[in-house]
Design a protein that fits this description.
By secondary structure, this protein is mainly α. It has two domains: 36 residues; 128 residues, no CATH class. 42% of the residues lie in helices and 0% in strands. The two termini are 36 Å apart. The relative contact order is 0.13. The model has no long low-confidence stretch (mean pLDDT 84).
């Protein structure tokens, strides 16, 4: 009976060491996760969209907002969050077409589906951070990690913490808040 107890204890300790080593690998960037998880949303693939919209901020995945939001945003580029982001009509039409085709209400991505599940029918959020889904996903992020962090410009600076956001990955295994240790 004692052998079984010691065997189980050794097994549990070994599992703990393996888990600790795997966590250390992830925390310090020694290795990528060994299991494959699909992206939360489709990463922006259109070169025009990536070029035009990443000049001032990251090219946000279209799948994080519904079509009506992208239409509203693209119709007021002269007042784009206090900036004039106007482009010529042909470019604007191409950008809008891309955004509409990949919007949350037209995407099959899990992240897009979750955005739409929590979005009220009459809601037209103009910021990703105004969606209920993204607010809920960030509810446990302490403001001090963002507000007082010179390496993070704000909650709209996705790439600062979500180090694979440019590939559509926003889940927990791909998060590192600059200046904070993972626990």
């Amino acid at each position: 009976m004692a052998r079984i107890k010691y065997g189980i204890a050794a097994f549990v300790i070994t599992l703990g060491w393996i888990g600790h080593a795997a966590a250390a690998e992830l925390e310090y960037g020694w290795a990528q996760p060994r299991f494959v998880v699909p992206p939360d949303v489709t990463a922006p693939s259109d070169p025009l969209y990536r070029r035009e919209c990443s000049t001032c901020h990251m090219a946000y995945p279209a799948g994080f907002l519904p079509t009506r939001s992208w239409r509203a945003l693209m119709s007021q580029l002269d007042q784009h969050f206090g900036e004039n982001a106007e482009v010529d009509r042909q470019t604007q039409a191409k950008l809008l077409s891309y955004l509409e085709q990949h919007a949350a209400d037209r995407s099959g991505d899990l992240g897009s589906h979750r955005v739409m599940q929590r979005l009220q029918a009459n809601s037209t959020p103009l910021r990703l951070t105004d969606t209920e889904y993204l607010r809920l996903r960030h509810r446990n992020v302490l403001p001090r990690f963002i507000d007082n962090n010179p390496q993070v410009k704000g909650f709209s600076d996705c790439g600062a913490c979500h180090f694979r956001s440019d590939q559509g990955y926003f889940n927990e295994q791909y998060i590192r808040i600059p200046g904070q240790r993972r626990h």
